Amino acid sequence: MMTDVWFVVLPGVLALDMTGPAETLRLAGGRFRLHYIGPDEEVETSIGLKISGVAPLPEHLPAGSLLVVPGAEDSARWFATPQAETVRRWLTRQQPQIHSQQLTLVCICSGALLAARAGLMHGVACTTHHDVLERLKAAAPGALVRENRIFVEDRGIWTSAGITSGIDLSLHLINRICGPQTALEVAREMVVWLRRSGDDPQLSPWLRYRNHLHPAIHRAQDLLAAAPQRAWSLPVLAEKVHVSPRHLSRLFQQHLGISVRDYLEHLRLAVAEQCLLQGQRTEQAALAAGFSSPRQFHRARGRAS
Predict the structure, then answer these.
(1) Is the pLDDT of residue 293 over 80?
(2) What are the two backbone dihedrals, phi and then psi, of residue 67, each rounded to the nearest 5 degrees?
(3) Nearest 5 degrees, angle CA 198-CA 222-CA 228?
(4) Which domains does the chain carry?
(5) In the UniProt record, does the keyword tRNA-binding occur (predicted)?
């Protein structure tokens, strides 16, 4: 199923705030259809590049869409433009769909300020670029502004700290919509790693420990992730990735800070927990995940807590 993504494009838009998320979503195997909308058919970006063929602002967006509001080079002057006022009024009209979560609002950098001025941030946990946090608080006194965060989500409204954090947020959205494997493949294609801010839940084991560029480790992780329930031995795994067992162990410790055995255990725990959520009994879940017994599963659980 394809998801429509609508980028609101205004004069002076920060190029990376728009192109970073757009390129990230484009790489997700055709799962997103990108649109560019705004008051002007042609706009000049922060780097002087002109974008033409911008479609008019539609009165309504299809349910299930992502609505992306990038930031601007000079957001203080930006808000004084008639184009920004047009978008502010338009965003206000989208409020019922956004607050009912028919639309997912994604604000990059100072785009959160425009959403705040449209009345969309009252009572919402949010963030923005550190330079404009105080202005966000002033624009939406009722907002729950979070500092030192890469991105924040609250009831279908996503905000990010800006610039490259728009890529981080886009990868997380791909993970949510398309699954962790697609997010991982896009991150590796872009030669970036998946990040989270400190207060966010930990990444799933399929995405954790992937912020490295070593091909042998990635191959080993791919094999383990594809069949964590298999009775993997270090020599068998090392042979499949064409390194010695000792070297593979050393690589995991050096680049991941974790042993091969512990990494596999994290994967198995995630599988077992998923089985439990699906209503399986503990013994069934433990065996399905590759544990030899419920007792071994409970011990692993204890080590992870």
Answers:
(1) yes
(2) -110, 115
(3) 90
(4) 3-190 (3.40.50.880), 215-304 (1.10.10.60)
(5) no
